[in-house]
Amino acid sequence: MEATSFKLEGTGEIVFFDLETTVPNRAGKRFWVLEFGAIVVCPRKLVELESYTTLIRPGDLSAVGLRSSRRDGITRESVENAPSFEEVADKIFGILHGRIWAGHNIQRFDCVRIKEAFADIGKAAPEPIGMIDSLGVLTNKFGKRAGNMKMATLAAYFGLGQQKHRSLDDVRMNLEVLKHCATVLFLEASLPSMLSGNWRTACSTIMTRSRSNAKFACREQETTRKSPTTTTTSIGYQRSVPYTRGSLGKDSQSGILSGLSSILNVPGIRQGRDFTRQISRALVEVGVHVQSQLLTILDSTESRNHRSMMEAADKTFSLLNQLSVDHRSFSEHVRKFISCTSSLAKIEESMMAGQSSEEIMEWYDYERANFDKLSRMQAETEDAVTASDKRLKSLGEEASRLKKMLLQVEDQLRHFEKENAELKTRSRKISKDILELEKKLQEAETAKRLHEEREMEINAAKKSLEMARIQVRQSVFTV
Prior knowledge:
alpha/beta; Nucleotidyltransferase, domain 5; six-stranded mixed beta sheet; two-stranded antiparallel sheet; 13 helices; DNA polymerase III polC-type; metal ion binding; nucleic acid binding; RNaseH_sf
């Protein structure tokens, strides 16, 4: 346990906190708090004033794996000698009560777990004087420009390193992510003309930003959601085409067509064959931009939004048809990508909510080990029953032959009869347990199979998206 002294009920101070918990792997199970970590932050300077962290022994130790396959590295051994929540409840209450609470997704998860933990021990839960949930704040203000709103993704986007999934490290990372996001939003609000796209000379390659190429050097030329895509026309100058978020609607289509008109109306274009050739090239360039824009939208859309993907794709294909651009191969790859992401979403819905790949594999390994252990015990018990039966029979025959030793032999007989009954009872119990474990094993195998199918669909989706990108690049080279 690591701690510095906390003042009780700090006025106006912000406390960032985070919990590490078990994840229920079946219905009827509950969350158990395994670790609590918090830092108190000055709201004026955003500097850490105090900190506290502790491991917590759960009420059910069996909910924690024997070996470390969790992302946070917390094992049963590491928490079995830790204090219970009741032992640290007063300390946690003093840290949280009367302060502004802050954290990532705390409203839907951490706050609920805190109330549950205090209810378990029959004590009143701490109350905040305000709440800052960085998940909601950043979703509204910062958007999904980093790819998604997971803390690990946001930290990687700003180059803050990997998330350790330990409470104190996570809250410190949470504070740094908020600082970086606030800085970016301040700069965008203060310097809109400096950070928005204008007519300028740029490279002739159309670039898109996605989760797969999100890491850019700060001073390198790049295209992001805050900087427009640049295309080079056949006439020899560059034109900025603003990035459109959401979907390809009428405004987007008219903007592209009006941009095409501006290209064709530039003075100095020769008539005849050159004019026709320039028109064809301009149409292809606009088609390439439209395809690139669609890929950016698809890559930034969550897999469960199948309808939004299809609407964006259909509008894009319609526009490409109007431009007379051959997009058969591109369309085939895009539809395959959308199909793969749709299948991926269905698989993820079938998987147990809130479970990571590591937790599913940990659950499977745990149930597999229990099943194998009981199977060995059953085999050993059956061998023991067989041996006991033989010995019992032998002793019975000996008792009938040796009447002089009847009393002694009868005592032995009663002893082994009792042992035989106990072993058979144990055998029946183990057989019953094996039937129950077979069901659990089947559930674990199903989860494992779904996980493998999910990985296959992810790989197929990546491959399809890459093929679409290759098709786009080939279209550029044909210009």
